[in-house]
Amino acid sequence: MFKHLLVPVDGSDISKKSLKKVAELAKADGAAVTLVYVSDSLPPMVYSDSTMGYGITQKDHQKACEAYAKDVFKKSTAALGAASKAKTLHISNSNLSEGILDGAKKSKADVIVMASHKRTGIKGMLLGSETHEVIVHSKLPVLVLG
Q1: Are the C-beta atoms of residues 6 and 103 closer than 8 Å to each other?
Q2: Which helix (H) or strand (E) holds 114?
């Protein structure tokens, strides 16, 4: 049914668990898989004990994001299994859902397959849902794994 799956990964347990289902889906359809990790393009401000704050440089922030993305991709690829040869894509965007949609365009995927944290009630209202944002703004089908 699908030929190219875009799978956002973040290193969380929910993301890792969904990769088994992704591997099954990719195998059943003979589909290619691209893993995408979205990191914040803006370095965080870190505060010390004093009233003066200090920050991390953009260059150091990018290096840290690249290293973390590499680690997430390594673990995610292992979770997919040896049979799956996934491509990887690291996107830098301060808006997670925009980064995922950008990754879908760049990889030329025909479906976005993502896990959901299943936040409901007050947590869902306060924290929002990146999955919901992707569904609302995507021109591609979005398959949500629970």
Answers
A1: yes
A2: strand 111-115
